[in-house]
Amino acid sequence: MGSVSLKIGDGTARFKRATLCSSAVNILMLLSVVTTNLFALYAFTYSPKDNQTNHLLPHVHHKNISLISEQVSLIMREIDSSQKKLAQMEKELLGYDTIDLSRPNTATELKLFLQHHQLPLGKDSRTGITEMVASVGHACEKSSDLLSQYMTYKISGPCPDDWSLAQKLILRGCEPLPRRRCFAKSIPKVGLSPFPFSLWKPVSDKIVTWSGLGCKNFNCLNSKKLSRECSGCFDLVSGSENHKFVKTTSKNDFIIDDVLALGYGGIRIGFDIGGGSGTFAARMAEKNVTVITNTLNIDAPFSEFIAARGIFPLYLSLDHRFPFNDNVFDLVHAGSGLDVGGKPEKLDFLMFDLDRIMRPGGLFWLDNFYCANDEKKKALTRLIEKFGYKKLKWVVAEKVDGSGSGKSEVFLSAVFQKPARV
Asked: Using CA atoms, how far apart are residues 138 and 178, in angstroms rounded to an integer?
């Protein structure tokens, strides 16, 4: 069996249709049955002409019947086995059926969401699709208990306060998550400033969700180093955020105006990987450049904070294929968040997807990427060289760790231009 996908909103409608492979298997099974019947007919109608063996005819006849029964049973078992193997192959290829819904304590809503739905007008004459199948990440099978917990709720009632559970599933590869029929908790967004004043106005503690987090206010978060891109990054007034990308503190820091001047054909839209509290997108917005900031709420309400500044947050893990068409972004910006678990294969997949969404002539800005050692720097350099990018800026330098330890660390900053491939 085969499948096609149709993107609808934030989900994927998947449809099942018959393929040449499945048709061939069905024909093979039919031929097997016909052959079996012909063999049986021949065995029943055949009679030996030698009169000397006529007295053995009843015994031979009985023996032929036993042999035929055994052969028929064997063929039927082979057919049954082939059908089961085919069904299992179909499930593995489609992916959604790998979740065992027969397990005890499986949520009814999960079973209903994953149920196949026949198309109301029957088989589509153009595509051959017959039914619609809901989309859910294949890795959800490994976290079926958590997934069932996520799908246990009161229909049309308030959703459980379980966003941290949803994020845990996403970080385990269970992405996309199934849709739910409940109302998410709403928090009044009181005191939001109009754009562009919202870019640098402090965000109130009262308009974000603190459940599931260690800190319960932004003062607490500003006292912590959440990542290399976020040390006091929620302080928009007196912290380091208000001079990022417009002033330099080290050789690795590039000014936005200098990078924009390198853009062939102009920079209009961009994508930021692991953008902290959204300051890069805020600075770009001041230059009339729209930037989408990829983020998760790891130890802090990043998505709500970014949205409160009037910027577009994309709640998506870096293991997910980016939901954008090919060759659409003029600029991709990334820092140390590009280092996905230190695994070269994962970085390889990520870089190819970033290259896919960036237009020819677009810029890839690698901003203060932490080089734990010289080998890591060389590995990243070899990977980028694979794409044939033109090197516009390149700086490797040491700077003092922002945590206050006084230790010097090596960082790489660079700007590349994507070539027009043929």
From this structure: 11
Facing residues of 291 across strands? Answer: 270
Within 10 A of 166 (CB to CB), how many other CB atoms are there? 20
d(CA 151, CA 175): 14
Give the separation between CA 219 and CA 165, rounded to whole angstroms. Answer: 25
pLDDT in tens, 245-300: 999 988 999 999 999 999 877 899 999 998 899 999 999 999 999 999 999 999 99
Q: 31: burial class by Cβ within 10 Å (0-12, 13-18, 19+)? A: exposed
> How far is residue 107's CA from residue 44's CA, in Å, rounded to a whole number?
56
Architecture per CATH, domain 218-418, reads as 3-Layer(aba) Sandwich (3.40)
Tokens of residue 73, six digits: 């049973």
Give the type of residue at 313.
P
pTM for this one? 0.72
Q: What is the enclosing helix (H) or strand (E) of 356? A: helix 344-357
Main-chain dihedrals φ then ψ at residue 206, nearest 5 degrees: -85, -10
Contact 287, 330 (CB under 8 A): no
Are the beta carbons of 169 and 147 closer than 8 angstroms?
Answer: yes
CA 390 vs. chain centroid, Å, equals: 29
How far apart, in whole angstroms, are the C-alpha atoms of residue 331 and residue 254?
15
* In the chain, ranges of CATH 3.40.50.150 domains: 218-418
Q: Say which residues have a Cβ less than 8 Å from residue 227's Cβ, sequence separation at least 6.
A: 274, 276, 298, 336, 337
Q: With contact defined as beta carbons under 8 Å apart, do 355 and 291 qualify?
A: no
Nearest of 309, 313, 281 to residue 203 by alpha carbon: 309
Start-end of H helices in 155-278: 163-171, 218-222, 256-260
Distance CA 13, CA 255 (A): 43
Other CB atoms within 10 A of residue 163 CB: 18
Residues 6+ apart with CB under 8 A from 100: 141, 144
Is the previous residue joined to 196 through a cis bond, with omega within 30 degrees of 0?
yes
Looking at the DSSP bridge assignments, the partners of residue 103 are none
How far apart, in whole angstroms, are the C-alpha atoms of residue 361 and residue 380?
21
Q: What is the pLDDT of residues 136-172, one digit of tens each?
A: 888 888 898 999 999 999 999 999 999 999 999 999 9
Which residues does residue 400 pair with via DSSP β-bridges, in sequence order?
408
Residue 103 in tokens: 């397990």
